Amino acid sequence: xxxxxxxxxxxxxxxxxxxxxxxxxxxxxxxxxxxxxxxxxxxxxxxxxxxxxxxxxxxxxxxxxxxxxxxxxxxxxxxxxxxxxxxxxxxxxxxxxxxxxxxxxxxxxxxxxxxxxxxxxxxxxxxxxxxxxxxxxxxxxxxxxxxxxxxxxxxxxxxxxxxxxxxxxxxxxxxxxxxxxxxxxxxxxxxxxxxxxxxxxxxxxxxxxxxxxxxxxxxxxxxxxxxxxxxxxxxxxxxxxxxxxxxxxxxxxxxxxxxxxxxxxxxxxxxxxxxxxxxxxxxxxxxxxxxxxxxxxxxxxxxxxxxxxxxxxxxxxxxxxxxxx
Length: 325
Prior knowledge:
Strand order of the largest sheet: 1-2
Number of strands: 4
Number of domains: 2
Helix content: 55-70%
Distance between the termini: 52 Å
Largest sheet: 2 strands, antiparallel
Strand content: under 5%
């Protein structure tokens, strides 16, 4: 059951950060969900190229952010949060604001929208893809210092078996040496589902091969980082961890380790090209590794793939932190 209160509370959390953080989050927000929330919270008139009717002109509208769309809040208790959210969207991403307003003012039947969403979610679940809000849970932060791997994993088949994406890494990582020790179809199914979950969470479409490749690399990278962190190079220990702990938790651990670099980078600034690029990659919503630190010295980004990447960036940040004191 859709809850307006919970939805507005969700928007409130998004508004708690800086405008820079809001801009980072904005491309990752689900448009259909935003449209559903605004459809429950607003009455909208006007639009690009539209002439307001006499009835619309006589209505006591609450606000307009652009002198194009006229807004009336359905729930006064939610008006401040909804208004603050829309003001930022209108100012920082006006095309998105316009699309959102046109979607809501189109008088789409919300119940039909929810039914379409349920049908879509059901089809995705049958194919081994979770709903978007559930998929986003893989990016939940945990504390690496207190994480203890479980030893009693119980797996259930999720949807139909689908083809596991081809491994696109070097073939030399710790994870890739441990996986052959597993020999379990259940493990492959769990790995496949985790990859599907990440693709849904990052909204990587099948026609965007580069984004799909990046997401798959991230899954293998975070799992490898988590396994290296916990196993200290012991492959048998790594296989034991993969047997007992859910891959979702290991992904969250790897993500949290990399996220620690982002938090440190957020406190630093540097105008030089290479240093600025490295910091910019770390500050993105999904932190990226600056390839200038690789042996080929390419001026670009890739996913974090191993603990050495984490250590390299940690050393880099330590030097910057010392210089900024």
